[in-house]
From TrEMBL:
Keywords: Cell membrane, Membrane, Transmembrane, Transmembrane helix. The keyword Transport does not apply. Signal peptide: none annotated. It comes from Metapseudomonas boanensis. It is a multi-pass membrane protein. It is found in: Cell membrane. This is Homoserine/homoserine lactone efflux protein. InterPro entries: LeuE-type (IPR001123). Its main location: membrane.
Length: 210
């Protein structure tokens, strides 16, 4: 891949990653609930979902999924249901009194957080269709395709890891300001509303218009 092409792709990756979406909401939610180091496992899961989406597009399967109304709908509505499930879990999250310095922050299992992030990213069919439209613009058809997709995949994942670290860390810092159960409950319900909003947006996505 030519340097100027890669630089243009790098800029596109930053724009895409910084755009608020379900992944950003999930990262901030994890940082809020578990702190940065524990919550960042969610970002690892997001990247596994992203890597699988890139592999699907590179293998040509993405074009089949984009062309299949049934496959698109199944993935989309799974994503909608899963985001609503995350909203319910966030709404029901139990606050703790952090005014007491001895209070412990809730611990999430790393594998559970990884799976959560993976499902948030992978259950978004719009991302697959979007990558089908964007990635080929940076591909040189006369150069080896595997190497180019590997470079683009590594670039996208690295940028997204940095951005999601920012979202997770920002939420973890906010957590330090939420010293009472009432404040934490309000924040949890705010994130629950954001998850519902993301689910509503995903529900409006139509294959013919993406």
């Amino acid at each position: 891949m030519a340097l100027e092409t890669w630089l243009a792709f790098l800029v596109a990756c930053w724009v895409i990653s910084l755009s608020p979406g379900a992944g950003a909401i999930a990262s901030m939610s994890s940082g809020l609930q578990y702190g940065f180091w524990r919550g960042y496992w969610n970002a690892i899961g997001l990247q596994l979902g992203l890597a699988l989406q890139i592999a699907i597009v590179a293998a040509g399967v993405g074009a089949i999924l984009a062309a299949s109304a049934l496959a698109f709908s199944l993935i989309k509505w799974f994503g909608v249901v899963y985001l609503v499930y995350l909203a319910l879990k966030q709404w029901q999250a139990l606050p703790s009194d952090l005014a007491d310095d001895s209070a412990e922050r809730p611990l999430g299992r790393p594998l559970t957080l990884v799976l959560r992030g993976f499902l948030v990213n992978f259950s978004n069919p719009k991302a697959i269709v979007f990558m089908l439209a964007v990635l080929p613009q940076f591909i040189d058809p006369h150069a080896p395709l595997v190497e180019q997709y590997l470079v683009m995949g590594a670039t996208m994942i690295t940028v997204d890891l940095i951005v999601m670290a920012g979202y997770t860390g920002l939420a973890a810092r906010v957590l330090r300001l939420l010293r009472t159960p009432r404040q934490q409950r309000m924040m949890n319900r705010s994130f629950a509303a954001l998850f519902v909003g993301a689910a509503a947006l995903l529900a409006t996505v139509r294959r013919a218009t993406v």
